[in-house]
Amino acid sequence: MSRAIPRRPVVTLLAALSMLPLAFAQQVTVQHAQGETTLNVNPEVVFSYDYAAIDTLHTLGIEVDGAPPLAGAAPSWLPSGVVNIGSLFEPDYEEVNASQPGLIVVGGRSATAYRDLARMAPTIDLTFGSDFFASLAQNTRTLATIFGKEAEAEAELAAIEAKIEALRQQVAAGGDGLVIMVNGGSVSVLSPNNERGGRGALLYQTLGLVPALAEVDTATHGEPISFEFLLRHDPDWLFVIDRDAAIGTEGAQPAAQVLDNELMHQTKAWQQGHVVYLDPFNWYIISGAGLSSANEMLDEIASAYAE
Q1: Which of 97, 127, 157 is a domain's end point?
Q2: Is residue 53 scored above 70 in pLDDT?
Q3: Nearest to 53 by CA among 131, 151, 123
């Protein structure tokens, strides 16, 4: 469960003492989704309830000290042995209070805990907005400012922006599509018009995928649909998020099996090999994206259009 909080190394005690006045003076104020927060630059102990932030920090060379546990396999950028700080919905306030982190990050599902956590330690809310790349860039720059990683952040963002620009042309020429979610054997379609961004934001709003259906309920898990519905609207592309795979539902039928039926076999997407099964962790568990997951998501789409 919990382990001793690691300390970032210092060269010598004398050097550390000589730096104390400077360390106390080095503070930064950052803007975020729920206001602004002032904290020390390069905080020593970092807790994050936002997986996208953990991803971005790892890419910038910073490892978090505490994170919510995952039910399934952890991605490569989530360090092992970190302090269990409770779930996204129920933080372990006793652990947080005892550890006195220099920075806590919330976002998406965990954003409702912001006020309580902010009473204990400097806390920022990096919830994604409706613009995928703008949110990724803003959150990355916020974290980079705190840790003095501005140059590294700009290089990463420039590479991602170049991928987006190249992909827009391919997506625009590829026909229309839908982003759907499979859960418990049922299918729902995700809205292209979600003002909060949503799980289809990268495809619809950033890459310009033309929706085969414009009016869709903006509910978190989409609007329930039938296979007859999919055949009737018959998109050129279907991008599939398997929610059961994302949350580790035992005994659940995989999305690929749910969609393998006579009606689906008649759709253009099926016949053209344009049914794309998206990475469940990146597209469902993470709220938005971090630097590594954004690259993986873009590479996934690029691979689909290259075939």
Answers
A1: 127
A2: yes
A3: 123
Strand 186-189 and strand 223-225: the pairing is antiparallel
Looking at every residue in the chain, the average pLDDT score rounds to 89
For residue 291, give the amino acid letter: L
Q: Is the pLDDT of residue 7 over 80?
A: no
Q: Is residue 205 assigned to a domain?
A: yes
Q: Tell me what pLDDT residue 48 has.
A: 98
> Is pLDDT at 10 greater than 90 in this prediction?
no
Whether residue 293 is found in the same domain as residue 188: yes
Report in angstroms the alpha-carbon separations of 200 from 44, 204, 265, 295: 36, 6, 24, 16
Residue type at position 50: D
The pLDDT of residue 77:
87
pLDDT for res 88? 93
Count of domains in the chain?
Answer: 2
Say whether both 113 and 173 belong to one domain. no
Cβ atoms within 10 A of the Cβ of 73, count?
Answer: 9
DSSP result, the chain:
---PPP----S-HHHHHHHHHHHHH-EEEEEETTEEEEEESS-SSEEES-HHHHHHHHHTT---SEE---SSPPPTTS-TT-EE-B-SSSB-HHHHHHH--SEEEE-GGGGGGHHHHHTTS-EEE----S-HHHHHHHHHHHHHHHHT-HHHHHHHHHHHHHHHHHHHHHHHTT-EEEEEEEETTEEEE--TT-TT--TTHIIIIIS-PEES-S-----TT-EEE-HHHHHHH--SEEEEEEHHHHHT-TTPPPHHHHT-SHHHHTSHHHHTT-EEE--HIIIIISSS--HHHHHHHHHHHHHHHH-
Same domain for 223 and 116? no
Q: What is the CATH number of the domain that holds 230?
A: 3.40.50.1980
Q: Residue 233 belongs to what domain range?
A: 166-306
Residue 5: inside a domain: no
CB 48 within 8 A of CB 124: no
